Amino acid sequence: MKKILIIGLLLFLNFHQFVFSSGHETNQDTVIESSENNRDTSKTESFVYTFKIHQNIEPSALRLTKKAFKQAREKKADYIVVDLDTYGGLVNIADSLRSAFLESEIPIIVFISNNAASAGALISIAADSIYMKKGSSIGAASVVNQEGKVMPEKYQSYMRSTMRSTAEAKGKKIVVDGKDTTEIWRRDPRIAEAMVDPRITIKGITDSTEIVTFTVQEAIEHSYCEGEASNLKEVLQKANIKDAKIERYEVTSLDKIIGFLMSPALQGILIMLIVGGIYFELQSPGLGFPILAAITAAALYFAPLYLEGIAQNWEILLFIAGLILIAIELFAIPGFGIAGVAGIILVVTGLVMSMIDNIIFEHELYTEEALKAVFKAFFIVTLSMFLGLVISLYLGKKVLTSKRFSSLVLDSVQNKDEGYISVAKEQKTLVGKTGVAYTVLRPGGKVNIEGEIYDAKSEIGFIDKGEKVKVISTSSSQLYVMKI
Q1: Cβ within 8 Å of residue 232, ≥6 positions away
Q2: Is 416-483 the same fold as 15-248?
């Protein structure tokens, strides 16, 4: 229900991390044991679902792939063709994509239209078939950091094993040559490892001085590409997919809105609106518009993050709990103590954690990457809150003194010579006298002084009903008292 309400509200209101840098022509004598070739390609018509990954391999690419795969399953596609062009990206996101490719019940064909470097190499190897456009390349999968420096051996070891196991997952092929049969890997796992580690020597391919990157013809020769193709039509022809019905994944208006709302700059503005709305509501209680603006900004901040699977329920609840604690501190507990501090911490934590995709915490190799993501989100949130408060203070002074907003404040003048006085004369005589709290003062309430009931405010802490009080000052028809 909560998710439906968030979606409805969004429709109604219609930075990098660890990256790692960056097969064969089938013939009549070859039998390949794979899910793709077990499908009936002699059908009069095949349904092909296709989408593009022309970006860095990051959370948005994973979310795009999951959506496309889901639609392909719902539409009962026979094949999925991924038009791939990437220089790499996050190790953990690439690993998640690799798993999605390997676990897919629908055969996946990758069409490398330019580059399959880094994460692109791993993703491509996980596909059932690879086709490459003239001038494209695949390989170069060493793990490097954001500055392009090669990471320590434990990272390289992890990536070597991942590349090797991915190649092995595609199984072996049986080559029939006359009376002899030979069983060989469809994609040599050693080559996959050599795309990560320059120390690996493979005769005719690498001499242990550089990591492997294949051109189209090299990839075909070493069974890391099924063939060269210049477009989707040629890919399907070479894959022997006849009379194909093609449907492309299209980015929806909602996807575009979500992408726009998830930009760091806009997220910062929304946080400032949340802070500003709360500030102005506190300055003018009951006005309504400022708090409505704050609620709307909060919904626009959390809704796209929640819908994209980044913000979790507990993270949003942290934010709400923080607001409740701050409200309790402001309206129920005098001063600013534990509740207020805890509320601010929870609000900041909720905003920060909602901005971070939790997938980066799922592997020990990504510790530094996770810390960078947390620092980036924390910087955006705290800077936005600070700017929101500063701007609110500045605008608050301008608004409350502006004639255009005179209806929001009391600006009439009561002159003394017209008979107006700021404090009733008899109240001045009460300073120093004692009485009892007629109601609980929290901090405002009423007191009984010499049998008369007056409005009063506690100067220090709460005062329970019936406790003795002393008047210490008076201002604007208001007595200020303290417990004695």
Answers
A1: 50, 81, 83, 111, 246
A2: no
Phi and psi based region of residue 450 (left: phi greater than 0; alpha: psi -120 to 50; beta: remaining): left
Give me the amino acid identity at 201: T
pLDDT, one tens digit per residue, over 285-312 is 655 788 889 999 999 999 988 887 788 8
Q: Are 102 and 110 in contact (CB under 8 A)?
A: no
Q: Is the pLDDT of residue 440 over 70?
A: yes
Superfamily for domain range 15-248: 2-enoyl-CoA Hydratase; Chain A, domain 1 (3.90.226.10)
Classify 437 as helix, strand or coil.
strand
State the burial class of residue 76 (Cβ atoms within 10 Å of its Cβ: 0-12, 13-18, 19+). Answer: exposed
Helical spans, DSSP H, in 21-178: 59-74, 91-103, 119-125, 153-169
Q: Verify cis geometry, omega within 30 degrees of 0, for the bond prior to 152.
A: no
Whether residue 145 has pLDDT greater than 60: yes
CA atoms lying within 13 Å on the CB side of residue 257: 15
Backbone angles phi, psi at 243, to 5 degrees: 45, 50
CATH topology of domain 416-483: OB fold (Dihydrolipoamide Acetyltransferase, E2P) (2.40.50)
Query: Which neighbouring-strand residues pair with 93?
Result: none
Beta strand pairing call for 143-144 and 137-139: unpaired
> Which among 241, 195, 334 has a CA at the least distance from the CA of 37?
241
> Tokens at residue 241, please?
């997919």
User: Could you tell me what percent of the chain has a pLDDT over 70?
Assistant: 78
b/e 154-193 (16+ beta carbons within 10 angstroms → b): ebbebbbebbbebbeebeebeeeeeeeeeeebbbbbbbbb
CA distance 443 to 456: 8
Cα–Cα dist 365/158, whole Å: 9
